[in-house]
Amino acid sequence: MDQQVNRIGVLTSGGDAPGMNAAIRAVVRSALARGIGCIGIRRGWNGLISSDFVRMDTSSVSHIIDKGGTLLYTARSDEFRTVEGQDKALGTCKLLGLDAIVAIGGDGTFRGALELSRRASEAGYKLQVAGIPATIDNDIGCSHYTIGFDTACNTAIQCIDKLRDTMQSHERCSVVEVMGRHAGYLALTVGIAVGATAVLIPERELDFQRDIVEKIRRARLAGTTHYMVVVAEGAGNAMEISRRIHEEVGIDPRVTVLGHIQRGGAPSVQDRETASRMGYGAVQAIAENRGNCVVATQEGHMVILEMEAALKMTKKFEMDRYQILEALTNNCGNI
Ligand code: F6P
Description:
Elements: E1 7-12, H1 20-33, E2 37-41, H2 44-50, E3 53-56, H3 83-96, E4 100-105, H4 107-122, E5 128-133, H5 149-170, E6 173-178, H6 185-194, E7 198-200, H7 208-221, E8 227-232, H8 238-249, E9 254-257, H9 269-287, E10 293-298, E11 301-306, H10 307-312, H11 320-329
């Protein structure tokens, strides 16, 4: 039988992503609008383990929609992977009378949430969990889009546009490493958007001659005297790529690792709007007793997926985008 939802917890876990604050705001305000109380759990799952929480009201999420980071802090919790850690977390849920948790983060966060819900059920306690996908890597199988990706891409292209200015003046080659963990979504999107000479992604096996040497050569033959090579962190090490370019092409690249700068900054309209819709959708699903679920996007629409099934889903890497990149850069270098 459906259970009345009186109080939910919200937390952010894993690497932060611009738009997490907008998602927290949406969860809190959507809950309050339904007469559901909301508790902010600080520092991810660690906060649930150690009872580190804050009561949320409508003003506690004022003026955060435009802020990067997460006001609830975030962490990757090793303790939550253990049975002892999960039992402590469940103890906090019982103590606070939480009927549901909205977990904002990546698929590791969702796995933890599902595990917690199962342990709760074994203990005779009903705890719904809803996941909101947020990571700059865009690497969650069940969702076409993850909160933070668009802002991170915009940050990366702003940096690379600046690098291009100085590479152009000095007629140099730039090797730029972008984040993405084991995925190349960020690198490929950014590479297309900056008109990179070459982009290295983990989804495509590297052939150094074909993928770098030939591309720099063609660009030079087309009249270009500066080159932009974008490397996904999961595809190789920028220093090593630079060393090989020097060795095989005879030019002396400059290396830039963009790093954590990609995780900060004011969220873009896409991230604010998606986070707002997902936060609203998560609370709606919980209120309708549809947890355990993930609020995802598919074909541009928001969908509520059953969490266990969602965690098994994989996303096809759109390799035709790589072909687009090649078609636009091969013949004329990087413009
Ligand atoms: O998952 C987000 C991400 O920024 C990845 O792109 C990157 O590999 C990783 O987190 C970095 O993690 P940390 O912040 O722990 O250094």
